[in-house]
Prior knowledge:
Number of helices: 17
Radius of gyration: 26 Å
Number of domains: 2
Oligomer: single chain
Largest sheet: 6 strands, antiparallel
Structural class: alpha+beta
Number of strands: 13
Amino acid sequence: MNPSEFHMSSGAGHARAYVRVCCVAALIGVATLGLGFFSDDFLHLATIDGRDTPAHSKWNLFTFADGNPAHMRHQQSTGPHPWFALPALKMHFFRPLTSATMVIDRAVFGDWAPGYHLHSALWYLALVAVVMLLFRSWLPGGAGVLALLLFTIDEAHAIPLGWWANRNALVATVPALLGLLAHLRWRERGWRPGLPLSLVGYIVGFLGGEIALGVMGYLGAYELIAAPGPWRKRFTALLPAATLSLVYLYLYGLAGFGAYGSRDYINPLRETGVFLAHFPDRFLGMVGNLFLSFPPEGHVLLSRLQWGLVAVAIMVPALLLLRSRMSAEERRALPWLLLGGLIAGIPTLGAAPSARLYMLPSIAAAAVIAVVLRHTWAMAWSRRNVLWKTLLLLFGFFHLLLAGLFWPLALVAISLLTSGHAASARSFESRCDIAGKEVILLTAPDLLYTVYFPFQLSKDRLPAAWWANTLSPYDKRITRTAPNELEVELIGDDVLPRGIEHVLRSTRFPFVKGDEVAVTGMTVRVLETENGGVRKFRMTFDASLNDARYRFLVYDASLPGFTFTSPPALGEHVDLERQYLPSLF
């Protein structure tokens, strides 16, 4: 068969194998039905229900901070944002189609979480079906089936599938990929409706989320490397989609969407220098995750950059050595898929590194690994070569065995987390009444408890204010220096912000001694700093801490959950040790 022709993998056996892989995707989706809600889910639910949240509108759920200092001060006065969040912080994302699907969930399913997850599972099944069409068209025989299996069981997909708030990755990717398929059919077969339909797919994808922009990486790589015709024809074919993308980016920025002021979320257009400084580490971290399943969220043995370099050192020689064994179809498909996948990941590099962001790049990774596994298998058993056997075991372990084990472990872990947190919230409501009170949160184990906990409470049990002095589990000394004052000193090497707190304030915006943050009912003054971080600060309230309007909470890992406490007596202090969530394993 001429490799320039747009073809389908032949054979009823392969067709049945593709169907079986889709059945695997369906089973994975069904397995998520037992999961509950966690983290951002509670914020989205509260917004849909009409509570006062940073999003303000249920049709624009993905607004965590809109860059307006007045709005931030309001959120710091009532919650959920803590006092140290940057006033101009912006985490404002354009995802109206995803928001609409979530509003529908709330209207149809109410508090029944399995319905929400079933909806997400249908999106995942649709995604696997669309990727199947791509692989059937470009990877011959069993290589396409294996690639689809690798994509389907990719452990990085557990979060977009099982986390309701991350559904945007699915809603954005499915229509954008359908647009890519329409473009490929137009260019390979001359199917005229393909051009307008491709643009429709991209537009719908953009309405789902920013991740859809990554499809342009595949489109550009295809026209650069694999498309038929002279350069002028390729440029002309690419121009409509490129123009559409530029218009989208212009309108996106004009409407004020994007990120600013966070260390972990960087706007490549507004903070280009910062983005470029982080680019090598984040890009190679993505490469390390795609080909070695290294979790880019943290350092395990090696740094993100080092894992990426190891992956490059393994993959480049392997592809070069195996190229002569590849079919003409594989030699045509892999270059543009690989280049396109790497480019497709670039729009995600502005966000905090996480494997859940690499949905589009994982398509290319699955194709490359499938071809390498297929030919490595032949090389390993046809020759007495330890190198090929080692490579086969390496990829088989990471992408088949490890991925297969991760899914049930991840689902169990998430289920334990969500059910445990829900039980903690129910227990708290039965034990503690904070309705209409101003709550001072002295210690908590993580962002989930610190920021999102109030949104789990019943509407008639909501506090008037929710003030967290920190988000991370520091050791701290809290001293009462006046009837209405508390001084908080972090003990050890800790300074604020750190870890998850950097999402709300980048180290580019350090505090200095004497800085004050005034919100309704409370003022915070920075007393000591160290290397741009806060070591000690004073919280001054409008009334005596013994006033009935206040409630003081601490986290108790033995419950686990919050419990009431009393403020220290005047002139006395209390030392609070860090409290962690109970380990899931």
